Amino acid sequence: MRGYSYRDEAGTSVARARGVELPISPKKTYEVLNAIRGLTLERARAVLEDAVELRRAIPFRRYNQETSHKRGVGPGRFPKKVARNVLQILRNAESNAEYESLDTDRLYVKVAASSRGRILKASMPRAHGRATPWNEQTTHIEIVLAERKEA
Questions:
Q1: How far apart are CA 38 and CA 77, in angstroms?
Q2: pTM of the model
Q3: How many whole angstroms separate alpha carbon 61 and alpha carbon 27?
Protein backbone atom coordinates (compact mmCIF):
# COMPACT_ATOMS: atom_id res chain seq x y z
CA MET A 1 0.00 0.00 0.00
CA ARG A 2 1.78 3.08 -1.22
CA GLY A 3 -0.65 5.81 -0.20
CA TYR A 4 -4.29 6.57 0.32
CA SER A 5 -6.79 5.06 -2.08
CA TYR A 6 -9.11 8.06 -1.60
CA ARG A 7 -8.48 11.21 -3.63
CA ASP A 8 -10.37 14.20 -2.23
CA GLU A 9 -11.89 16.91 -4.37
CA ALA A 10 -10.33 20.36 -4.38
CA GLY A 11 -11.66 22.61 -1.64
CA THR A 12 -12.72 19.86 0.75
CA SER A 13 -10.97 19.39 4.03
CA VAL A 14 -10.80 15.87 5.38
CA ALA A 15 -8.85 14.10 8.10
CA ARG A 16 -7.09 10.86 7.26
CA ALA A 17 -5.41 8.08 9.17
CA ARG A 18 -4.16 4.66 8.20
CA GLY A 19 -2.63 1.55 9.65
CA VAL A 20 -0.09 -0.44 7.69
CA GLU A 21 0.55 -4.18 8.00
CA LEU A 22 -1.59 -4.68 11.09
CA PRO A 23 -1.62 -8.30 12.34
CA ILE A 24 -5.39 -8.73 11.91
CA SER A 25 -7.65 -10.73 9.61
CA PRO A 26 -8.53 -9.03 6.29
CA LYS A 27 -11.97 -10.67 6.21
CA LYS A 28 -12.96 -9.55 9.71
CA THR A 29 -11.56 -6.09 8.97
CA TYR A 30 -13.79 -5.87 5.89
CA GLU A 31 -16.89 -6.57 8.00
CA VAL A 32 -15.96 -4.12 10.78
CA LEU A 33 -15.26 -1.29 8.32
CA ASN A 34 -18.57 -1.95 6.54
CA ALA A 35 -20.31 -1.59 9.90
CA ILE A 36 -18.85 1.88 10.62
CA ARG A 37 -18.78 3.38 7.11
CA GLY A 38 -21.11 6.39 6.90
CA LEU A 39 -21.65 6.68 10.66
CA THR A 40 -20.90 9.77 12.70
CA LEU A 41 -17.65 9.74 14.63
CA GLU A 42 -19.39 9.27 18.00
CA ARG A 43 -21.63 6.48 16.70
CA ALA A 44 -18.70 4.67 15.05
CA ARG A 45 -16.70 4.88 18.27
CA ALA A 46 -19.67 3.51 20.25
CA VAL A 47 -20.11 0.56 17.84
CA LEU A 48 -16.42 -0.38 18.10
CA GLU A 49 -16.28 -0.01 21.89
CA ASP A 50 -19.41 -2.16 22.25
CA ALA A 51 -17.82 -4.86 20.08
CA VAL A 52 -14.68 -4.84 22.24
CA GLU A 53 -16.79 -5.09 25.42
CA LEU A 54 -18.94 -7.90 23.87
CA ARG A 55 -22.13 -5.81 24.20
CA ARG A 56 -23.08 -5.51 20.51
CA ALA A 57 -22.12 -7.83 17.66
CA ILE A 58 -20.75 -6.64 14.33
CA PRO A 59 -22.97 -7.87 11.47
CA PHE A 60 -21.15 -10.19 9.07
CA ARG A 61 -22.63 -9.83 5.58
CA ARG A 62 -20.10 -11.43 3.23
CA TYR A 63 -17.89 -13.75 5.29
CA ASN A 64 -20.65 -15.29 7.39
CA GLN A 65 -20.67 -19.03 6.69
CA GLU A 66 -21.37 -20.97 9.88
CA THR A 67 -21.72 -17.69 11.78
CA SER A 68 -24.39 -17.85 14.44
CA HIS A 69 -27.31 -15.44 14.73
CA LYS A 70 -26.96 -12.59 17.22
CA ARG A 71 -29.98 -10.77 18.58
CA GLY A 72 -30.91 -7.73 16.50
CA VAL A 73 -28.05 -8.25 14.03
CA GLY A 74 -28.45 -11.54 12.22
CA PRO A 75 -25.21 -13.36 11.50
CA GLY A 76 -22.53 -11.56 13.49
CA ARG A 77 -19.43 -11.85 15.63
CA PHE A 78 -17.35 -9.93 18.15
CA PRO A 79 -13.99 -9.28 16.39
CA LYS A 80 -12.25 -7.72 19.41
CA LYS A 81 -8.73 -7.56 17.98
CA VAL A 82 -9.89 -5.87 14.78
CA ALA A 83 -12.20 -3.47 16.65
CA ARG A 84 -9.34 -2.37 18.94
CA ASN A 85 -7.06 -1.66 15.96
CA VAL A 86 -9.76 0.21 14.01
CA LEU A 87 -10.63 2.21 17.13
CA GLN A 88 -6.99 3.30 17.44
CA ILE A 89 -6.94 4.45 13.80
CA LEU A 90 -10.25 6.26 14.31
CA ARG A 91 -8.72 8.13 17.27
CA ASN A 92 -5.73 9.07 15.11
CA ALA A 93 -8.06 10.42 12.43
CA GLU A 94 -9.94 12.42 15.06
CA SER A 95 -6.68 13.96 16.30
CA ASN A 96 -5.78 14.83 12.72
CA ALA A 97 -9.21 16.48 12.31
CA GLU A 98 -8.65 18.61 15.41
CA TYR A 99 -5.27 19.65 14.03
CA GLU A 100 -6.93 20.62 10.73
CA SER A 101 -9.50 22.74 12.69
CA LEU A 102 -12.47 20.60 11.66
CA ASP A 103 -15.63 20.56 13.79
CA THR A 104 -15.46 17.17 15.52
CA ASP A 105 -19.21 17.20 16.29
CA ARG A 106 -20.05 17.13 12.56
CA LEU A 107 -17.50 14.50 11.49
CA TYR A 108 -18.54 11.23 9.86
CA VAL A 109 -16.66 8.27 8.42
CA LYS A 110 -16.52 9.08 4.70
CA VAL A 111 -14.09 6.34 3.65
CA ALA A 112 -13.27 3.13 5.50
CA ALA A 113 -11.18 0.87 3.28
CA SER A 114 -8.95 -2.12 3.82
CA SER A 115 -6.62 -4.20 1.71
CA ARG A 116 -4.54 -7.27 2.27
CA GLY A 117 -0.98 -6.72 3.40
CA ARG A 118 1.93 -9.05 2.95
CA ILE A 119 1.96 -12.51 4.47
CA LEU A 120 4.56 -13.09 7.16
CA LYS A 121 5.80 -16.62 6.62
CA ALA A 122 6.90 -18.76 9.55
CA SER A 123 6.86 -22.41 10.50
CA MET A 124 5.83 -24.28 13.60
CA PRO A 125 8.04 -27.21 14.65
CA ARG A 126 6.21 -30.51 14.95
CA ALA A 127 7.10 -33.99 16.12
CA HIS A 128 9.67 -36.19 14.37
CA GLY A 129 11.53 -33.28 12.76
CA ARG A 130 8.62 -32.03 10.69
CA ALA A 131 7.35 -28.46 10.44
CA THR A 132 3.99 -26.93 9.58
CA PRO A 133 3.75 -23.62 7.70
CA TRP A 134 2.38 -20.87 9.90
CA ASN A 135 1.56 -17.83 7.81
CA GLU A 136 0.34 -14.62 9.45
CA GLN A 137 -1.86 -12.34 7.38
CA THR A 138 -1.57 -8.57 7.66
CA THR A 139 -4.02 -5.86 6.68
CA HIS A 140 -3.79 -2.20 5.64
CA ILE A 141 -6.58 0.11 6.88
CA GLU A 142 -7.48 3.60 5.69
CA ILE A 143 -10.05 5.87 7.36
CA VAL A 144 -11.09 9.31 6.09
CA LEU A 145 -13.29 11.62 8.18
CA ALA A 146 -15.18 14.56 6.66
CA GLU A 147 -17.56 17.21 7.95
CA ARG A 148 -21.21 16.53 7.18
CA LYS A 149 -22.82 19.43 5.39
CA GLU A 150 -25.76 21.03 7.15
CA ALA A 151 -29.09 20.54 5.40
A1: 20
A2: 0.88
A3: 11
